[in-house]
Amino acid sequence: MTDETAERSSTLLLFGATGDLAKRMLLPSLYALYADGLIAPDLRIFGTARSALSDDEYRDFARQALDEFLPTDRKTPAAIADFLNRLYYQPLDASVVDGFGPLAAKIGDISGGLSIFLSTAPSLFEPTIKGLQQAGLACANVRIGLEKPLGNDLASSAQINDAVARVFPEDRTFRIDHYLGKETVQNLMALRFANMLFEPLWNANAIEHVQITVSETVGLEGRAAFYDGTGALRDMLQNHMLQLLALTAMEPPANFDSTAIRDEKVKVLRALRPVADGDSMRGQYGDGAVNSQPVGSYANDLGEASDTETFVALKAYIDNWRWHGVPFYLRTGKRLAERRSEIVIQFKTVPHNIFDPRGGKLEANQLIIRLQPEEYVRLMVMAKEPGLERGDVRLREVPLDLSLTTAFAGSQRRIAYERLLLDLIEGDQTLFVRRDEVEAQWKWVDAIREVWKKNKVGAKPYASGSWGPSAAIALTERDGASWHE
Known about the structure:
The chain has 485 residues and is an alpha/beta fold. A hairpin with a 2-residue loop joins β8 and β9. The chain folds into 2 domains: 11-176, Rossmann fold; 180-413 and 434-477, Dihydrodipicolinate Reductase, domain 2. The two termini are 37 Å apart. α1 packs across α2, α1 (20-35) crosses α13 and α9 (231-249) packs across α14 (435-455). Strands 7, 8, 9, 10, 11, 12, 13, 14, 15 and 16 form a 10-stranded mixed beta sheet that branches. It has a 6-stranded parallel beta sheet with strand order 3-2-1-4-5-6, sandwiched between helices. It is 34% helix and 22% strand.
């Protein structure tokens, strides 16, 4: 739902326009939006980066990116050629403020509004914002989208946000968490707030625990320098996973608009209880096999020994009425058994099993919301096996499946950045993260890091291709629960 006061920008500026994110995601997303008529045909798209390219050379770069990363059925030569003609490029060293003048001159008239997508190293945020301001590219009809990482703790995040806020007010600042652009994540809100079936049970009276898993099979993949200074807690849990937790746990918003939704999310984040000693653990992958292929350890991939965690598991509690006493188990890691992002709602067992005298064993209901690689919602329910029993009653757990891929087979599937770029251009902040959310997330995560530092919690080894260290299993099993695997 677009903010009624927002206007669609007529110009888009991409920083980091020759980087991996631009090649894999941004340029293919913008082309898809253009090909489907979702952005104005006269939208001007400017790229900037350090590479010294002309407009034509950048168009060749973009053509190669589209050829490599667009699905075959989306490659229409005439549409691609027309899209490429909308692209322009201006070299820029963002650390040099004087270089922003030629960029502004190249862009020219921005009276129709300018949207900026800023993907850069954290050290360049402040000089970039200053350069934009001095060059006249930060006026009242300019909005800015900020790609993570926005700092590496609360203090550095606040420093970046302060620098941005001096030039761009909150209503023109769009902090990007690409998980919020995923269709299945947005469907989580539809599942909860468009169906009477779940909401009466979405609380501590009916739910035993909640699990959120984001697992990867890949290792460093060219991100060694960044990742080793960051680790799994700050790379994945601080942003993506806490946003999933907030959407899962938040109260129903009054409206489907950016203010109402983000107000409810930040209440959850502020209600997170500090993680207790022993309720979090770190791990690091060693040698092993993923998808039947041998892979090396983190130290081997990095080229040196390190204590950076590639796996985190923890137990969290939300101190409010709805979730009193319900543990939220979170885990994320690299080089795990399979690639998976999912939310599992584990319901309590029925208060009385009428089938017990006749041998009927019950399993508690489970709701599984799979975000990737498949997209589905699965409800596990108990059913009687067919037969004419005269003794025991045979019960079995069976799935009620809603495959979103199958159910919406006729609809065009959108990657997250298509939605987020379109919302940035149109000025809709619903799927972007507000400053108070970011700071609540960092405050909670910084406290975990302090516990690790105080208790000298090291990264426990685990074999690549496994589900992480055995301590992660103990984290749930001591409560009588098990990870969904």
